[in-house]
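User: Show me sequence and structure for the first protein, then do the same for the second.

Assistant: Starting with the first protein.
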Amino acid sequence: CNDKVIKPIVNMKRILLFLTALGLINTSDLLAQNTEKPSRWEIGVDALSLIDQNELPPYSLFGRFLLNPEGKKQIHLRTRIGFERFNLLDSSFWFGSIGLDYRITSFFASLGIQKEIMAFPKGALYVGGDIGFSRAEDVKEWTDAGTTGREGFENFTETKWRLSGILGYTHQLGRNFAISLESSLQGTNTKQNWDKDYINFVVIGPEPEIVNEQKSIETWNTKVQPFYQLLLTYRF
């Protein structure tokens, strides 16, 4: 019975302490805003790509630089660089060799600009645009036909140019942190290439299947992304 009474009291004290600390942070922020110039640098990560909720590489860094610290409507230069690499080598299987090496790599870089259109005490609504380039490669190599049924390789590459119009809102959290949610209208040019050269022994018939194929596809596409980026950033 005592635990049922004590635990809610302890939880309530923790909540009150958290709210008190949050109130002190906000109060100090209001005082600081009257004496300090706005931070010019901002750096952070995209929470959506970390949980695979958009097309951008998860391991990337986003940055903004304030171009007009004395201006009424802030203008930022913005950039993002990302990279991802995944290797699943034949030697990584604890139960023994399976004769397969599998590698995925991707790279992304973008540059853009944004401008405030409406400012609030703790946030701002802004518009902007980015131009981005990405390249991804997916390589499979089969080295042991006895375990995989194949011998040879398959290589897939994709390059993409992306032009994005952006509508976003940023909200200040504490003195130096901020969260920003962005939507975008995108136009993309995508080039995909396949290069296959392998022998497939798992077939019905007396002879194995020999696959030797090269193919390329280029596409243009436009789409609206309601949740383009969810940025968690640090200002300094």
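Switching to the second protein now.
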Amino acid sequence: MEDDDFTKYNEKASSSNDLWEKNESFTSDSIEFNALDTLPKKSPLSYVIVVLSLAIVLALFYFFIKRDILTVSGIAVGFLILIILSLRKPKNIEVIINQTDILIDNKSFNLRDYQSFSVRDLAGGFKILLIKPVKRFTPSLNVYLMDKQSSDKITAYLSHIIPYNSSVNNFIDTVLQWLGI
């Protein structure tokens, strides 16, 4: 069941290029495609087990030291919220890139605020489109692509607007990929 999520999304993305033909278009004015808002987890049950065991150990440790039920219940509620958020399924989002803006689910981001982009491979056959901002503390835009054909066309289109940066993963990116974040 763990690999079913990945194969389901890969089959959906690569089945006779239906996604590209029906939902994506490539013109000189803009490019439209569907993407995922997050990556599907390999095994949500393993995350639940790890978080639940960590919550129990932390709550018991704090209870035996301080004997404070209110804080222990706060720890339990906090970890319960983390578990619920980790079980969330990814949803399809519509992305439109034109000469001046990127629209992600009707949120507009001006391309003048971004200095470069790169496309990186992820586990399960997915790719991530990273768009690096000009300002230091502005978060980068991350779009999870479902197939190679769309990433090639997006790279060709965006390279005419902002520079392509084929940087390798740094240490923090490697750790975040290992953690699955």
